[in-house]
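User: Hi! I have a protein structure encoded as tokens and I'd like to know what sequence might fold into it. I'm fairly new to this, so please keep things simple.
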């Protein structure tokens, strides 16, 4: 919640110890939890206390100015004294989430993103484990069955108990393998186009730059929302432009195994003799879903806008100067330049509200509160059957789980 500074009247978060504008102390500082870190060192301790994997595995670099692609991080710039929260996207570009003197605010930004990632990784692990089967399941079932009936467990079973065990094992194995076979058949018959597309694309060349017969190519990789005919671009040296390319006549580009011989790099290298494709419209149109626009504040034609949901084309709001409040914007009234990521980035100015602007904080509105409640309800619904509430509430990591940083969305700004 935002509060007003008693000294300079600026609005700031009630979890901060002092006003970021004038430095006045917040006498009623509120922490969101007793486990809330407020310094980089505190965040490091929280990270270690949860048993999380090394930074190189989770891709969260605390206190480190990590420069390679695919990374979240926070560090203090010793030259300016500012704290910087960043995300290095898969193309090597850096998106700065926060840069300023407020360490507690900066830490909280990365802290919330880290907790979100932990929950998503737990859900992925739980989903994977729910599909696995171990023969010990039959043993456990039989032990529980006998315990309920007052019988001895199979530590020293009778001959009759052995026969029962064999029957239960065979029954469970039979049901399991039938379910697997039936599920496979149903998938073949009823699989959606998106699933089929993902299966088809699993062997495609990886995203990045390629050099073949003197020409430079770029592959958009295995993204499920890129159409087959738009997965490649070629650099036209005559026009000095990147454009879509038909590579059907290049057999080496049909499979990742052969294409690796011509692979240059995933991200752009400064000494390349061609420009970075990541700054072109063709790149944005192919790497971002239709209607995708980064969440945050935008300024266009003397109006201030807020994008609430990056994937929902209707989640735009406009600040009404007349009413001094935010209002929902109908889809037909959204400026064309704000309907796609390539054009909208020119009018994007702050991801997080600050008191220097002449508008109020959108996160204080009921629109935002309702959106967050819906998201939380969805997360709870998805996770309630996957792990216990105690596991999800303390964010502790199990050594038996695996962390797949490749499952993160590395193309977005946050």
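Assistant: Happy to help. Inverse folding works backwards from shape to sequence: for each of the 414 positions I chose a residue that suits the local structure. Here it is:
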């Amino acid at each position: 919640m935002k509060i007003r500074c008693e000294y300079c009247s600026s609005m700031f978060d009630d979890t901060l110890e002092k006003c970021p504008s004038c430095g006045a102390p917040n006498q009623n500082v509120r922490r969101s939890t007793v486990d809330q870190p407020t310094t980089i060192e505190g965040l490091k301790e929280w990270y270690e206390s949860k048993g999380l994997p090394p930074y190189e595995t989770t891709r969260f670099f605390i206190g480190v100015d990590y420069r390679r692609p695919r990374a979240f991080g926070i560090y203090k710039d010793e030259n300016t004294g500012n704290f910087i929260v960043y995300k290095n996207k898969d193309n090597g570009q850096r998106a700065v989430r926060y840069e300023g003197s407020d360490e507690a605010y900066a830490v909280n930004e990365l802290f919330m993103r880290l907790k979100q990632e932990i929950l998503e990784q737990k859900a992925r692990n739980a989903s994977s484990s729910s599909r696995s089967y171990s023969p010990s399941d039959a043993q456990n079932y039989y032990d529980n069955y006998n315990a309920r009936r007052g019988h001895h467990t199979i530590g020293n079973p009778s001959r009759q108990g052995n026969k029962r065990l064999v029957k239960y094992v065979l029954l469970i194995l039979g049901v399991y393998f039938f379910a697997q076979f039936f599920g496979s058949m149903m998938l073949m018959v009823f699989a959606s186009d998106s699933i089929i597309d993902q299966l088809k694309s699993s062997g495609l060349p990886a995203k990045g730059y390629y050099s073949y017969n003197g020409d430079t190519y770029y592959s958009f990789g295995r993204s499920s929302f890129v159409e087959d005919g738009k997965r490649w671009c070629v650099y036209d040296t005559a026009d000095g432009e990147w454009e879509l390319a038909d590579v059907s006549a290049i057999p080496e580009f049909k499979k990742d195994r052969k294409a690796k011989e011509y692979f240059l790099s995933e991200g752009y290298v400064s000494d390349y003799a061609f420009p970075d494709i990541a700054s072109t419209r063709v790149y944005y149109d192919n790497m971002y879903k239709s209607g995708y626009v980064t969440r945050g504040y935008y300024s266009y034609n003397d109006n201030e806008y807020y994008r609430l949901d990056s994937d929902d084309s209707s989640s735009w709001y406009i600040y009404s100067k007349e009413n001094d409040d935010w209002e929902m914007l109908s889809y037909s009234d959204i400026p064309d330049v704000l309907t796609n990521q390539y054009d909208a980035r020119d009018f994007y100015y702050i991801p997080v509200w600050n008191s220097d602007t002449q508008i109020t904080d959108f996160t204080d509105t009921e629109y935002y509160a309702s959106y967050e409640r819906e998201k939380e309800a969805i997360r709870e619904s998805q996770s309630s059957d996957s792990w216990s509430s105690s596991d999800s509430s303390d964010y502790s990591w199990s050594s038996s789980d695996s962390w797949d940083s490749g499952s993160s969305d590395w193309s977005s700004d946050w």
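A useful reference point when you look it over: Residues 196 and 215 are 31 Å apart (CA to CA). Feel free to ask if any position seems puzzling.
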